[in-house]
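Example 3.2
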Amino acid sequence: MEITDIDGILCNGIKEGKFGLGLVKFSGSIAGVFTGNRIKAAPVIVCRENIRKGYARGLIVNSGNANAFTGEQGLMDAREMCRIAAKLFGCREDEVAVASTGVIGRKLDVKWIRRKAAEVYSGLGNSKEHAEKFANAIRTTDRFIKKAFSESAKISAVAKGAGMISPNLATMLCFVFTSAKFESGELYEILRKAVKPLNRLTVDGDTSTNDTVLLIATGRDKIDRGVFESELERVIYSIARQIARDGEGATKVFEVIVRGAESEKSAELAAKAVANSLLVKTAIFGCDPNWGRIVAAVGYSGAEVDEKISIAFENDEKTVFLVDRGKIMGREEEAREIMRGDFRIIVDLHRGNCTDYAIGCDLGYEYVKINAEYTT
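Structure, written as tokens:
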């Protein structure tokens, strides 16, 4: 199921080298959540302004240039992108959502965007090929397109993201489309809860200036809210896993599940600290069951913790305890086998009943190579 299978969606995109442009035409309610970085890219600022009223008629996205740390000129350029799209869509510029991704600190080539926008608009359509062209247009270092759907709730999402990913959203653009009918205020409440998997995602610990998640509802179908909320979180969880899978140079995805915490905050802090630890990530890349790095990460996380913790590695077939209530179990070789594929790190603090999780990927040689050469 593609985004073009959602009733009321037309899209297209173009990719030329490192630069891309995508357009989506629609009419409906819209809600968004954005980066927690204090330095926000110009398109984030403009998009927040434009969707505040909860209604939009189109989306324009460019890749290759983040239009971030570009001052007043950047804001002018982001608004010009909206004007360009609005003229094509036949709507007001404040009815256009805008997003950018790419290199920070470089002036946007608005002339290229204006020229390519007309070309992209002339080819708008609702086929699978159109959806793939849009998804490809918004990629940067992504190795593959991220998409997920729910037929029962009539939801289809497309995203990009591979590097500069840290809990608190993540460096990504994620656009979720649905034909369900919800008012914008209701849509925002639903989205705020559903983005938790993205707020539990980390690739490299860097939080982007451009993170944007938009939920767009064309209002053609009546869907039960409870069903919709459940399916939306499942779709976004799938997107989060795919972004982790595509972490620059990543070879495996892992989850950190913290149990037995005194509070929800302690569980969250511990899970994020382990998933975000470069020492843990590199150990996972090398299939090194160095549980001491996990202990250290939990210890500095800010969570309430003592030495009576348990640490286990598990996959769908087996659970191996490395530490059990503070006792070292000496089962490293068994754990090493589990680490050869995707797996879960279970940390039990034995202090309460709260739990939380984080999603991460390993960190290897290819990550350094990709990011050492990113702007060249």
